[in-house]
Every structure is written in structure tokens, then in C-alpha cells.
Specification:
The complex is a heterodimer of chains A (310) and B (367). Chain A has 310 residues and is mainly α. Helices cover 68% and strands 0% of the residues of chain A. In chain A, helix 2 packs across helix 10. With 367 residues, chain B is an alpha/beta fold. In chain B, strands 2-1-3-4-5-11 form a 6-stranded parallel beta sheet, sandwiched between helices. The radius of gyration of chain B is 22 Å and the shape is globular. The chains are: A mainly alpha (310), B alpha/beta (367).
Chain lengths: 310, 367
């Protein structure tokens, strides 16, 4: 079963776990961008989610409550961004970047005294006989509930965006806020809700890092995962299932190259590490060429502020 | 007319301050402003945390005669120059740059501020008279860890998470492997390069990749406690070591953290600031280790059998006494060519430029 000293089943299983944080953050950002808002503060919201989730989990003794706390923390921080950009009409790019800096500083402050504590464990779900199926059991049925939860969230976002009226309204706001406004939709309110959803998802992803991936708190623990999530949204050209693929690709290549090294495979890891970014740049190039199909999918009002007086 | 007067005044004032600064330096400084540039966050629990402990020790030693400033998370490379320049402009008298990747930026900025002292950790370039370098002989600690690893591994597979393929890290890998092989000829080493100093999730992934391969002793040369957190998940089957800082967290003891290498920077930082105050400051290239107290070995826990613990402590004492050098021949390079003859010890120059694995390690060093 081993290929080059690596058991592919174990590899795929680790890849699925490694991809959860960026997948959650990316699907949240996708909804935000679909509503026409560009929030570059994903990294900040993730790390706030990581520390809030950690603090709640440690004090309540429940990892589940920790995840709720992480999501709430991310959502509250995103509300700062929402108020600034939607009511005070600040520049979204600058506000998003500031949000990341703010989140990093704030998380470091909240995290004082939480170094070296172990959070309550998140055990893999017990799926009984399913987990014992060779290969498939290892790959699919031995994870913790967040792994399945993150895939369900992707599916839910896909259904909502594609098949429901809510999704249609959200997309309308992102494509042309003026038209949506003329139809009587509350553009600002819808965008605020989308921003909060994005914050909650980023917070959830951050909490997964501090509660499951690296079960501990360390300053700067997300170490740039939020930026990768932003890249995945572009890579996915704003389609939910492609976010899943993108997250597996980005998360997978990291895990793959580490495993290849551990197994002693003689391949240049630098190139492998580079490849997801190269693909993202390629997608950006195709998009900006104007003829690329993907360009059609970028929300038309992305990054533009809306005011009813216009 | 008026503007010119102001300019003149400004120039005169600047000149006066410059002279004042020069004069003060010759006699020693009354009050010293000390800057620290960190590659990660202070809360990393490892490398940066330990440098900051040194900074705090300086503050404690000199009280209000010093002012401490620091900047965390400064990327290695061009951005470091900006941070350094800013610090020099803000009136720092001495700036410690605490990561290998600040080597060129430190030298570049030092050229522009001849009156500011720059101290670069773990590097070897001193292009200007105001640049000193300092380092610790971590490989001495790695020898002790390698001994424990060789004795304690059950799968005969030990692992090492490398950060970047620089001499500093490579000599640690070699020292770790040599001493594990010495006590356990069947031992095999897997090296994983993380290409980062600080990224807890990636460090944990690297540890997991090693554990998936059957490795049961993991040494890490990255800055966070994440590899220990990953090892802790195995419930005592996998052990590891505190790196750069003691990492003596109750949760990680007695396993997975069985001992640690502690970087003790405080005495050096205090000495250098003191020299600046005395006016005795001079350019240096310092490389202390266990004998000088710059590298400490953290408590060895009960997870290590008593005889192994005694051997490890004996090795530490031998290194401290100067009777044992971790790189003592005969040692061959990976390709089988001779490096050190029987009984010869490694010259510092060889260590500081080390770019090869010793015989027995499988795999290539990434270029």
C-alpha cells in the first residue's frame, strides 16, 4: 500500500485535517466577497477566533463551546470592519489590513497567561465498523466532527448561493448594489450579515488551529493561514466546491511535502511548496486578461462601498 | 531668508548633538537605549521568548538607566532594514538582531549609522566596526539530546525538524545524529525541513509526518512548542525536547518533553550594555556554549531511565569542563570522505560553514 514510503491513506487523512482551517476561512470570505465586500482581515479574525475559542474551551472544559466562542469572537471582530466600511464608508482594503494588525495585537493581549495550557481534547468521532474498513475507513471515517462539519458548511453555502432566494439576493447585492437597492433590498444590512458570517467562519477556522491542529496557544499561531484563505477564494473563482479543492490542494501540498521529506524521498520540496501559489498567480493572470472565463465570476461590485444617496 | 536661518539652526543643533553623542560614547553612556529585533512573537515559548527574557534581564539590571524597545515578527530580508533603520533613528544606542536572516540587513544599516552599535545573533558577517556577532554552541546540547534519543528510541527511527538549511541547523543535526548512532548503531534519522522559524501549524504537521513514519524521538529546530504538542497526542509513545527555551510546561512533562536546550542570553546582553556604559565597548565575535553558561540543559525528567540520565549529565559536565568536544574524530562526511582524523576536534571555522551531513545520514541538504 505504500508509495515511496508513504501510506497514501494516512496522507489523505492528514491532508483533510490540515485543510480545515483554511477551508473554513475561505468559504466565509467567499460569502463576504459574493456580497461585494472585500475583507482582507481574515488573518486577524482567524487569530481572534483561535484565542477566543481557546479561552472559552479552557474555562468551560468543552471543546464544542470553544468552537462556538471562536466563531463568536471572529464575528464580533468582523463587526468592527462592518461598521467602519458599511456605515462610515472607509476604504475596504485599508480597513481589512488594519483589522489583521488589530486582531494580532488583541489576540496577543488576550492570550497573556494562556501559554502552555492544554485545551480539552477533540476526539475523533466513533463511527464504529465504518472506521475499520480498510483504506476508506482510514481516509474518511476516523476524523473529528469539525472535519465533517467543514465539508457540510461548504455544501450548505453552495446550496444557499445556488438554489435559494437568499443566495440570489446576496449575489445581487454583490453584483450591483444599486440595482439591489432599487429593488428594495437592504444592501448594508445584507452585507453586514455576510461580513459576520465570514468572521464567524474565520473564527471557527482559527479555533480549529488552537484546539485541534496545534492544541495550545502561542502568539501568532495562525502564521499566515488567513492570507492563504484569501488566495484560495481567488483560486476557486468564487465557487464553493472549488474552495474545497483549493483548500485540499494548499493544505495537501504542505502535508505532502513534509511527508515526502520524512519518508526520505529525493524530490525538491521547494518547488512543491511553491506550486499552489504559482497556480493562484496563474488564475489571477487569466482573470485579469479579461477573456478568461473565470473573470465573469468575480462579483462586479467587489470592494465598492455603497451609500443609498448615490 | 527665514527658512535659511531655521535650516542653519537645525544644522548647528544636529552637529552639536552629533558631537555630544561622540563625546559621550568615548566616556561611556549615561543612559542607554537598547533595541531588539525579533523574528517571531515573544509568546512563541521558544527562541524569541528567550531573547526577550534576556532583554528583561537587562532592564532589571540597569533599571532606569536603560530604555528597552523591541519589535516582534520582523520578517527576515528587506523589511528588516526598514525596522532596523527606524530603530536606529529613534535613538537606540545598541541594537540586537536576533535571527540569522538579519545578517545582511544588519550590516547594511550599520553602515549608515556608524555611532549605533549592532549585535547580530548567529551570523558571521562583521563588515563594519560597529557590528559584532554572538552565538551559542547549541550543538553541545544536541549531543546530549542525541545520546538520549539513541538510548530511548524503540523503533530506531529518530527525527529532526529543521528550519532552514544553514550551518547553525546542520551542525545541530550532525551532532544529534552522531551521538544517537554512537550508542545505537541501528538508529536512522529522518530530517524534515519546515522552511520557517515559526509556524505552529506547519511545525505540528512536520512532527505528525515524522510520527506517521514511525519516528518516536523528535528534535525540533523551530521556535514554537507545537512539535511537543503533537508528540503529546501520542500519549507518551513519542518524546521530544524543549528547544531554545526550557518549555518545561507541566502538561508536557515528564513526557513528551524529556529535557531541553535553554539559550541563556541574559549574561551576554548585560555585559554588552555594561560595556557601552563603561566606555569599554569593542567589536567582538562571541561563541559561548555550555562551559560559559550560555547554553543550559533543562531538567531531565523521570521518563528517562536513571542510567541514561546519568550518562547525559556526565556528558554535559565533560563538555562544561572542556574535556569533551561533541565533534571529535574520526568522523567522515556523508560521501565517505574523511573530515576529522582520530582524536581531532572540529575547528570553529568548519562548524560555522558546515554544509554537509556526516556519514550515515540519508538524504540531501536542500540548496
Amino acid at each position: 500500500m505504500d508509495i515511496g514510503g508513504i501510506n497514501p491513506a494516512i496522507l489523505i487523512a492528514s491532508l483533510m485535517v490540515a485543510s480545515v482551517p483554511i477551508m473554513l476561512a475561505a468559504i466565509g470570505e467567499l460569502v463576504v466577497e459574493k456580497a461585494g465586500v472585500l475583507n482582507l482581515g481574515v488573518e486577524g479574525m482567524m487569530i481572534i477566533g483561535a484565542i477566543c475559542g481557546f479561552v472559552v474551551a479552557v474555562h468551560s472544559g468543552s471543546a464544542v463551546l470553544g468552537f462556538v466562542g471562536g466563531a463568536l469572537g471572529g464575528a464580533v471582530l468582523s463587526l468592527v470592519f462592518g461598521l467602519l466600511t458599511q456605515f462610515m464608508l472607509t476604504n475596504q482594503v485599508a480597513t481589512g489590513l488594519a483589522l489583521t494588525l488589530f486582531g494580532q495585537g488583541l489576540s496577543s493581549m488576550i492570550g497573556q497567561g494562556y501559554n502552555g495550557i492544554k485545551p480539552p481534547a477533540t476526539e475523533p468521532l466513533n463511527l464504529g465498523p465504518l472506521a475499520d474498513i480498510p483504506v476508506i475507513g482510514t481516509i474518511l471515517f476516523r476524523h473529528d466532527w469539525m472535519v465533517y462539519g467543514s465539508i457540510l458548511i461548504i455544501a450548505a453555502v453552495w446550496v444557499v448561493l445556488k438554489y435559494t432566494r437568499t443566495g440570489l439576493i446576496l449575489r445581487a447585492v454583490g453584483e450591483s448594489h444599486d440595482a439591489a437597492h432599487a429593488l428594495g433590498y437592504k444592501v448594508v444590512r445584507i452585507r453586514l450579515l455576510a461580513i459576520m458570517f465570514g468572521g464567524a467562519m474565520a473564527g471557527l477556522g482559527g479555533a480549529y488551529v488552537s484546539l485541534v491542529r496545534v492544541p495550545q496557544w502561542t502568539d501568532g499561531i495562525t502564521a499566515g493561514a488567513g492570507w492563504i484563505a484569501l488566495a484560495i477564494v481567488v483560486f476557486a473563482s468564487w465557487r464553493p466546491w472549488r474552495v474545497l479543492i483549493g483548500a485540499y490542494l494548499f493544505g495537501g501540498i504542505t502535508v505532502l511535502q513534509l511527508n515526502l521529506q520524512a519518508a526520505g524521498a529525493a524530490i525538491p520540496v521547494e518547488y512543491l511548496s511553491m506550486s499552489p501559489y504559482l497556480i493562484t498567480i496563474l488564475v489571477l493572470v487569466i482573470m485579469s486578461s479579461g477573456r478568461g472565463k473565470a473573470a465573469l465570476n468575480a462579483p462586479a461590485a467587489l470592494g465598492q462601498n455603497f451609500h443609498a444617496s448615490r | 531668508m527665514q527658512r535659511r536661518t531655521i535650516l542653519k539652526g537645525g544644522a548647528a543643533l544636529g552637529f552639536a548633538t552629533m558631537m555630544g553623542g561622540k563625546l559621550a560614547l568615548a566616556q561611556g553612556l549615561e543612559k542607554v537605549k537598547v533595541g531588539f529585533i525579533y523574528v517571531g512573537p515573544i509568546g512563541d515559548g521558544g527562541w524569541t521568548f528567550q531573547h526577550h527574557q534576556g532583554a528583561l534581564a537587562v532592564q532589571e539590571q540597569f533599571g532606569d538607566k536603560v530604555e528597552i524597545v523591541w519589535q516582534e515578527n520582523v520578517p527576515e530580508g528587506a523589511d528588516a532594514e526598514r525596522a532596523l533603520t527606524q530603530m536606529a533613528l529613534s535613538g537606540c544606542n545598541i541594537i540586537f538582531t536576533t535571527s540569522f536572516g538579519y545578517m545582511d540587513p544588519t550590516n547594511a544599516v550599520a553602515a549608515k549609522f556608524p555611532d549605533v552599535k549592532f549585535e547580530h545573533a548567529t551570523g558571521y558577517k562583521r563588515e563594519h566596526p560597529n557590528v559584532s556577532t554572538y552565538n551559542a554552541r547549541f550543538y553541545e546540547g544536541r549531543a546530549i539530546q542525541g545520546h538520549i534519543a539513541g538510548k530511548m528510541t524503540k523503533s530506531n527511527k529518530i527525527g529532526y525538524i529543521g528550519s532552514f538549511p544553514i550551518p547553525e541547523v546542520i551542525m545541530g543535526i550532525n551532532s544529534y545524529f552522531l551521538h544517537a548512532r554512537k550508542v545505537n548503531p541501528a538508529v536512522e534519522l529522518s530530517v524534515v525541513w519546515a522552511f520557517t522559524w515559526f509556524d505552529p501549524a506547519k511545525e505540528a504537521d512536520a512532527a505528525k509526518a515524522l510520527i506517521d513514519q514511525g519516528v518516536d524521538v523528535i528534535a525540533a529546530h523551530t521556535d514554537s512548542t507545537a512539535p511537543l504538542a503533537e508528540a503529546a497526542k501520542t500519549g507518551g509513545k513519542v518524546i521530544g525536547f524543549g528547544q531554545a527555551s526550557d518549555m518545561a510546561v507541566p502538561e508536557y512533562m515528564p513526557t513528551p518533553r524529556v529535557t531541553s536546550i535553554i539559550d541563556n542570553w541574559a549574561p551576554y546582553y548585560i555585559k554588552r550594555v555594561q560595556a557601552l556604559m563603561d566606555g569599554s565597548y569593542a567589536q567582538v565575535d562571541v561563541w559561548e556554549g555550555i562551559p560559559g553558561g550560555e547554553v543550559l540543559i533543562g531538567e531531565i525528567t523521570d521518563a528517562v531511565p536513571a542510567d541514561v540520565k546519568a550518562e547525559a549529565l556526565a556528558m554535559r559536565d565533560a563538555i562544561a569542563a572542556g574535556t569533551y568536544h561533541p565533534f571529535t574524530g574520526p568522523i567522515n562526511k556523508q560521501d565517505g570522505s574523511a573530515w576529522l582524523a582520530d582524536g581531532a576536534t572540529a575547528p570553529d571555522g568548519d562548524l560555522l560553514g558546515m554544509n554537509f551531513y556526516v556519514e550515515g545520514i540519508v538524504g540531501d541538504i536542500p540548496s
